[in-house]
Every structure is written in C-alpha cells, then in structure tokens.
Specification:
alpha+beta, 5-stranded antiparallel beta sheet, 4-stranded antiparallel beta sheet, 9 strands, elongated
Length: about 230
C-alpha cells in the first residue's frame, strides 16, 4: 500500500511538471494534437501507479517522451504554416454572405441543424441575422452578426425543410401543409425538394430559403396574421 502511495505521488509530480511546461493553452481550449497528448499522458500515468510490477522509470520515460513529442509539434505548429494547417487544422467558415456553405458543413461532419443550434447558443436565431459564422480549428464557434440583427429576429424561426426533408411537427405549427410549401418552392424556382438545403419560417411569415449551391433568399409569406 505504501509503495503504491509513493509511486502515485511521484507520477503526480511528474505530470504536474509536464502540464506546466506545456503552457496555459493545454488546460484551456486544446488543439487536436494537444487533446491526443493529454489522453495519452493520462493513460501512461495510470499504468505505473496501479501496477507495482512495472518499473516506475518506464512510466516516467514514456510521459516525458510524450512531452518531447509535444514540444516538437509545437515548434512545427508555430514556425511552419503548412505544418500548422496539417497538424491543427484551419478555421471553417460555415455561413457567409451567400448563406450556408454546404461543402464546409459536410467537410466538418456537421449538418444544418448543428449550425442552427450553435447559432442559438450564441444568441442568433435567424440565419439571415448573421454575416459570418465559423468553427475554429479547436472547435470553438463564433459568429459576426449584421448591424441590424435584432430587427431580423423578432420571432423565433422554425425549420420546415432540412436538407430535402420536411419537419411535419414544425409544419403543423404554421397551420399549413406540405403542398403549401412545395408551391412556395416552385414559385421560387425550386422544383426538386432534395435540392433544398434549408427552409425556415418565423411566426410573422418571414422565410429563409436556400437551395444547395445557391445564395439564400428571404421571403415574406403572407399569412394574414402572426402565429407566434
């Protein structure tokens, strides 16, 4: 018991030293390689702490080897732009002045609902209220709103069509039918439902329509009343 206690203390001190040497970002928002290194170190630390049959030196050598790899990667990351792009990745602009970038969504294994959810967390509910939205290389999300964004989201938008598929629950909220929205699509030059990237409407009848590969449109559906 006493041996395990001593080994644990030694490994804890070694880990503390390594984490301090890695810098403040290691305990904040981590790059992908930093997350991998952190996970590796945690696994390497558990083995010598709990198994007295394994020489403690083996665990310490492995931990400091990982630290050495971290330093090498940091040098490449800080001094070579091409290496930085390969190791850490680059920011992905998912929404721009033309609307949602479907290619960037797929590239990052995201869909429209993921983007809308991230925007709502930031306080932006209407897709047309945002000029740009992007994910940083470490996964942090940020958005640049339009100057009058508050005027563009006076009612909560709901998703009617998400990547070619109707949301019947939200359609019921609007007191309309699928046929109604199919007619809206036809009137705006879209005859194929599968080509619709997203269609949202708010309680005032303002709609955001974007076809895949095209710039978005903002439509005003004349409902004659405010629904919510």
């Amino acid at each position: 018991m006493g041996l395990i206690f001593i080994r644990t203390v030694i490994v804890f001190v070694a880990l503390l030293i390594v984490m301090r040497l890695m810098g403040k970002r290691q305990i904040g928002e981590m790059q992908p390689y930093e997350l991998v290194i952190t996970l590796l170190i945690s696994e390497l630390a558990c083995i010598p702490m709990g198994d007295p049959s394994i020489p403690l030196l083996y665990g310490l050598v492995a931990i400091f080897t990982v630290y050495l790899l971290h330093q090498i990667i940091c040098v490449l990351d800080l001094n070579f732009n091409k290496a930085k792009a390969v190791i850490s990745g680059v920011p992905s602009v998912l929404l721009n002045k033309n609307g949602i970038d479907d290619y960037e969504l797929k590239k990052n294994n995201l869909d429209v609902s993921d983007l809308i959810e991230s925007l709502r967390v930031e306080g932006y509910f209407a897709l047309d209220a945002v000029e740009y939205a992007l994910y940083e290389s470490e996964g942090a999300f940020s958005a640049l709103p339009k100057k009058n964004f508050q005027d563009l989201q006076k009612s909560l938008p709901v998703v009617i069509i998400d990547e070619g598929k109707f949301d019947d629950k939200n359609i019921a909220m609007t007191e309309k039918s699928r046929e109604y929205y199919l007619n809206v699509l036809k009137q705006n030059g879209c005859k194929d439902l599968k080509k619709v990237l997203v269609l949202t409407v708010d309680g005032n009848g303002k709609a955001y329509l974007q076809q895949k590969g095209k710039k978005y449109k903002v439509l005003n559906l004349d409902w004659g009343k405010t629904l919510w």
